[in-house]
Amino acid sequence: MPKLKEAIPKPRSIFIKVRCPDCGHENMVFDRASRNVSCSVCGAVIAEATGGKVLLRGEVVERLG
Description:
- By secondary structure, this protein is mainly beta.
- 0% of the residues lie in helices and 37% in strands.
- The mean pLDDT is 90.
């Protein structure tokens, strides 16, 4: 009898806490966002949508998930 890989598969996507390069504010970003993500304080783009994983413009502080 073949063994299953995982009983409950984990998602491949995660949330990432990113520090804005302009103002230093930390924002939560989904790693597969479908739209550009801007800083909630200064409005600078911190993550660009690419059709798959986002292209991060800020510093990664923490990965959740």
